[in-house]
Amino acid sequence: MKKTVSDFVVQRLHDWGVRRVYGYPGDGINGLMGALDRADGAIEFIQSRHEELAAFMACAHAKFSGEVGVCLATSGPGAIHLLNGLYDAKLDRQPVVAIVGQQQRSALGGDYQQEVDLVSLFKDVAHEFVQMATSAQQLRHLIDRAMRIARDRRAVTCVIVPNDMQELPAVPVPPRRHGTVHSCIGSTASAAVPNAAALGQAADIINAGSKVAILAGAGALHATDELIHTAERLGARIAKALLGKAAVPDDLPFVTGAIGVLGTRPSSRMMEDCDTLLMVGSSFPYAEFLPPGGQARCVQIDTDPRAIGLRYPTELGLVGDSRATLAALLPLLDQKEHGAWRQGDWADPRLVVMVLNNRDLNLVSWEQRMLGGYPKFNASQELPDLPYARFAEMLGLAALRVDAPEAIGPAWDAAFAADRPMLLEMVTDSAVPPLPPDVSLAQAKAYLRALWQGDPEAMRTIKATMREYWASATA
């Protein structure tokens, strides 16, 4: 059987190292689906329940494997459904290639069924590269460019393949003539470490500080040892943005945990008191949880020069790989004493995971109260009382539902003694506020305004807030 355009696309993806594609079938990609079947497992097709999930799965694949994630969707509605997951990849700077179908070329411009201007639709989320194929000779360089740009720029790219093109004869090698493009597969070498002068300048800034705070993000996930060695050398403490949570373990005494609205008090105090800030692979967006402008001298390490100085006034930006840059910077850093600044104020650094069932979209409920001054709107905020423990048991897990304070201790004892994974469903009170490390006057006024306007849980939240503040003050 003569190879089709679809066969060539599948083979080219395989040649780039793709071994898994996430998607949902539809008649706009029948040719591509047939080619995946004919490839006899060379590329595994993972069927999602919805195209949006396929894009999220491709993004997760990129995050956890370090490879380019690939998703596949049909034309029209199927392509539209990809967008949410692709924006997740774009905003988290993950390399994802979306391959989507389109109505046949002869119908385009005719207001045909499910005809959507897909190039315009994807132009924002895949702004680094989005192209629709109109000739079989294009497919080689379209796939090559989509893969290379996604990988090297850590971006979302998109290739649109009309369904009538998918069954055309493949053109593996375009003719050598004017107007053709001859691309290739290969690796890209780039400078991963800034020059020696920049590293020396960064070391001078950091060595001059006596209270160094490190903020680690997703770009530092592969630099665990280097972050720890840097903190040890400087007597520094490390806070973590949400996407950088796995960068360093929480049980190290100088790791203060998460930063932000749901961050820890040690992280908040560190940012309030530091005189030097080393940002490593982070684009943490909330300025109110960073040092006030002018308080701390800042050195920022990031692979993307566009991220330098975006979140905090940066005295020096180092564009490079976080692991390699820290490794090159370490020999230039002074060994400092580990004083009180280093130890922080952790009482217990352990991390506990459980299901907290408060039957409420609680973070948003409290944002409505404390940021907007609006009372809780039950119709939008209340959740069904899903029996998490019973559902876990249906899956073969051990489980307990805990709905009384005196049952908490025995439940943990049972969990640690279980012979299988165990779920603890803790029935919690939605009226207890998820207080940030510090409550501003504006937040307090908005909270009181929400209660005054008839919040349905006004008295419960007041009592719970007073109990929480008392517990914090007497701890």
TrEMBL record:
InterPro entries: DHS-like_NAD/FAD-binding_dom, POXB-like, THDP-binding, Thiamin_PyroP_enz_cen_dom, Thiamin_PyroP_enz_TPP-bd_dom, TPP_enzyme_TPP-bd, TPP_PYR_POXB-like. It comes from the Bacteria. Gene3D superfamilies: 3.40.50.970, TPP-binding domain. Residues 4-120 form the Thiamine pyrophosphate enzyme N-terminal TPP-binding domain. Keywords: Thiamine pyrophosphate. GO terms for biological process: carboxylic acid metabolic process. The keyword Ubl conjugation does not apply. Pfam families: TPP_enzyme_C (PF02775), TPP_enzyme_M (PF00205), TPP_enzyme_N (PF02776). GO terms for molecular function: catalytic activity; magnesium ion binding; thiamine pyrophosphate binding. Residues 351-425 form the Thiamine pyrophosphate enzyme TPP-binding domain. Residues 201-329 form the Thiamine pyrophosphate enzyme central domain. Belongs to the TPP enzyme family. This is Thiamine pyrophosphate-requiring protein. It comes from Variovorax beijingensis. The lineage of its organism: Bacteria, Pseudomonadati, Pseudomonadota, Betaproteobacteria, Burkholderiales.
